[in-house]
Structure formats: C-alpha cells, structure tokens
Amino acid sequence: MTVLRERVTKRTWQAKAGAVALVGLVLAGCGTQAKNDTFSLSAMPAIEGPASTRRQILVPEPTAIKAIDSENIVVRLKGSELQYLAQSQWSDRLPRLVQAKLVQAFENTGKVGGVGKPGEGLAIDYQVVTEIRTFEINTVGGSHATVEIFAKILNDRNGTVRTQKAFRATVPIRGSDHAGMVAALDGAFAKVAADLVAWTLVSI
C-alpha cells in the first residue's frame, strides 16, 4: 500500500508540474505578441461598369520600390525624405494586400468570366499588371494621404499591351491619430481601385 501510494503521489506531482509548464508556455506566447498596431485595407464595394464579359483576368502581385514593398506604412516628411509610421504596420506586405483587394474588387463587379492570381489555373485572356508608385502619408502642404498605381492591360494571348494608365487619388487626413492616417490611405486606395477596375472593364 505504501509503494502504491508513493507511485500515485509521484504521478500526481508530475501531472501538476506538466500543467504548470504548459500554462507558462501559453503566458510566454501571449507576451510575445506584436506591439505594433496592425492595419489592413478595407473590402472593396461593388463597382458599376459595362455589360458583363466572359474575359478572364489575371492580377499579378504589383511591383514597388523597396521602401513601399514591406509591411511599413510610409510617411513623406519633405522632398525625398521618407520615414515609417511609428508602432504601426500593414497586416501583410503592401503589394500582397493591394493584389488581394484588386482581385476582390473585380470579383465584386460580377462582370468578368473569372479573375485570379498566378498559379490558380485560369485560362487567362488579359493580365492587369500594376506598379505601386505612391502609397504614403504626406505632411507637405497639409496632411493628406496619396496613392498612385500605374496599370497596363496585357493581352495574354499575344503579349501586347492593350492600354495603360496611371491612377492617383489624394484624401485629407482627419485627426492626428494613426487610425485616422491609415483611414485616409484606405480611402485614397479605394478611389484608385474603383477607377482602375472600371477602366479595365471598359478596355477589355
């Protein structure tokens, strides 16, 4: 009986020790959470356009310079001087966010035969190739957010460029907190994306 009791006691102690260790790991995991505020781009609304088309569109990931191609939120102080918004970040690399929201914007129209990203197996008619030229909070001449995306429609059958155009929007920043700054960027992107998608639907 004494031996059995000692074994039970030992097992009980081991179980309690294991539970304490597990709680310690969970608490440690909670302590390692990112301290930055994390933002995404809003879902795009449905966009009016011409009659539906059976064309299928590919949206590759946009290109961008290194300062933009990251999770950092760009702030232009003056001229060519750039910094990043403190304790704030995008939820993913900015080009990936823009790509995802452009795909969603095309889907929301319900006017294309299909739209997707590379590797999804679509029989593509056109590629919408984009470059993020500006995606920043600007403190020069009054605080505002500016987004500029250059786009070209590439015929996937023969490799020719059907048409190309730059889209730009500026939205004033309301308030001085980070959420207000990002909201202005989000609004500027929404305008650019709406114009870009409507232009594409007319062009194909």
From TrEMBL:
InterPro entries: ABC_trans_aux (IPR005586)
One Pfam short name: ABC_trans_aux
Domain ABC-type transport auxiliary lipoprotein component as annotated: residue spans: 40-196
SUPFAM superfamilies in alphabetical order: XCC0632-like (SSF159594)
Name of the molecule in the record: ABC transporter
Organism whose genome encodes this protein: Xaviernesmea rhizosphaerae
